[in-house]
């Protein structure tokens, strides 16, 4: 029995020494110190020994078990030290190396355009007003001289929640609300930036969601020449002093007379090119004198007050200013595209 225990000890110590990781060491521990291990078997067989041999073999078996356990603990500690040392080596930090640069974000090009337009019009004496994106049918249409049977109120053109509630299709309701709040007393001189929503198929030049900036000026003796002067000043400040504007007759339900406003092409200088379709002009916004019915519905006496209104698409302005050929670039969150506007 003694020879068996000595052989077990020698064998266990060899396996402990050969173990290269915690898993192998655990297998040795279970094999020799577990309930079904050889040392346990020796202790169970002590009943067959003589009275003189039992204490000697029992003591020896306990000594062998204690020595194996001690060697296992020592090897476990050694393996842990090796693991920690290896991990520290792999994760060693060179404090003399330069730090990683912090990637800075930038204003979105649409936001940059909105802020630039706001600065220009604030410099011209306008204030900035905002309103709800979920709007009532009255302010979105009726107060702007668009009666119930007007084509623009087709359910296929707008996002309706109910018959009287929808996502606004323009920022003009802000104008109507502001006029109403003035209770027929001028002047009113505002611009209204914000998101608008229309049922449109997304492509290179259209989106179901886009941004508008509309303007309104109401006071005594406001004329079409005032409108032209304001828009001419805006275009020169936004696009450059060399740019010119022209007004073409058009139709909008809330203005009379109404005009489309073109700006001279910055690429060809007005001589004609592919961008301006050889015309030398590019359409940028719509405008006109506020319709007397709109003034009256908002509490203003059209015999005492007159005014002009205009509206422009922010995406349109940005595409022209930065030569962007697809409106979808603004909404895909491609950092390669957005990174170009860090200084905008």
UniProtKB/TrEMBL annotation:
The keyword Coiled coil applies. InterPro entries: aa-tRNA-synth_II, aa-tRNA-synth_II/BPL/LPL, Phe-tRNA-synth_IIc_asu, Phe-tRNA_ligase_II_N, Phe_tRNA_ligase_alpha1_bac, Phenylalanyl-tRNA_Synthase, tRNA-bd_arm. Binds 2 magnesium ions per tetramer. Its main location: cytoplasm. Its EC number is 6.1.1.20. Residues 61-92 form a coiled coil. It is an enzyme of class 6 (ligase). It is found in: Cytoplasm. Its cofactor is Mg(2+). It catalyses: tRNA(Phe) + L-phenylalanine + ATP = L-phenylalanyl-tRNA(Phe) + AMP + diphosphate + H(+). Residues 111-320 form the Aminoacyl-transfer RNA synthetases class-II family profile domain. Keywords: Aminoacyl-tRNA synthetase, ATP-binding, Coiled coil, Cytoplasm, Ligase, Magnesium, Metal-binding, Nucleotide-binding, Protein biosynthesis. CDD domains: PheRS_alpha_core. One of its GO terms (molecular function) is phenylalanine-tRNA ligase activity. PROSITE patterns: AA_TRNA_LIGASE_II (PS50862). Mg(2+) binds at residue 256. Belongs to the class-II aminoacyl-tRNA synthetase family. Phe-tRNA synthetase alpha subunit type 1 subfamily. Tetramer of two alpha and two beta subunits. This is Phenylalanine--tRNA ligase alpha subunit. It comes from Alkalicoccobacillus plakortidis.
């Amino acid at each position: 029995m003694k020879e068996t225990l000595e052989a077990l000890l020698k064998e266990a110590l060899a396996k402990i020494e050969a173990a290269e990781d915690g898993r192998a060491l655990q297998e040795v521990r279970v094999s020799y110190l577990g309930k079904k291990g050889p040392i346990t078997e020796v202790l169970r067989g002590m009943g067959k020994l003589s009275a003189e041999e039992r204490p000697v073999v029992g003591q020896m078996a306990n000594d062998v078990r204690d020595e194996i356990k001690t060697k296992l603990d020592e090897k476990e500690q050694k393996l842990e030290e090796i693991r920690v040392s290896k991990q520290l080596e792999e994760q060693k930090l060179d404090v003399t190396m330069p730090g990683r640069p912090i990637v800075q974000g930038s204003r979105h090009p649409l936001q940059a355009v909105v802020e630039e337009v706001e600065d220009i019009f604030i410099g011209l004496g306008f204030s900035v007003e905002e309103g709800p994106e979920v709007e009532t049918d009255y302010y979105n249409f009726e107060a702007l001289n668009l009666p119930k049977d007007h084509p623009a109120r087709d359910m296929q053109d707008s996002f309706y929640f109910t018959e009287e509630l929808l996502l606004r299709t323009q920022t003009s309701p802000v104008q109507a609300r502001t006029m109403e709040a003035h209770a027929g007393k001028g002047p009113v001189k505002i611009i209204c930036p914000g998101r608008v929503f229309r049922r449109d198929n997304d492509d290179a030049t259209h989106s179901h969601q886009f941004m508008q900036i509309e303007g309104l000026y109401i006071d005594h003796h406001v004329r079409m020449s005032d409108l032209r002067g304001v828009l001419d000043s805006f275009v020169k400040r936004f696009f450059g002093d060399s740019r010119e504007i022209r007004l073409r007759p058009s139709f909008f339900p809330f203005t009379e007379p109404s005009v489309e406003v073109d700006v001279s092409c910055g690429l060809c200088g007005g001589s004609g090119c592919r961008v301006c379709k050889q015309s030398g002009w590019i359409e940028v916004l719509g405008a006109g004198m506020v319709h007397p019915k709109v003034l009256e519905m908002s509490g203003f006496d059209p015999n005492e007050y007159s005014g002009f209104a205009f509206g422009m698409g922010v995406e349109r302005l940005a595409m022209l200013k930065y030569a962007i050929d697809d409106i979808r670039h603004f909404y895909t969150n491609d950092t390669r595209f957005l990174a170009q506007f860090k200084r905008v």
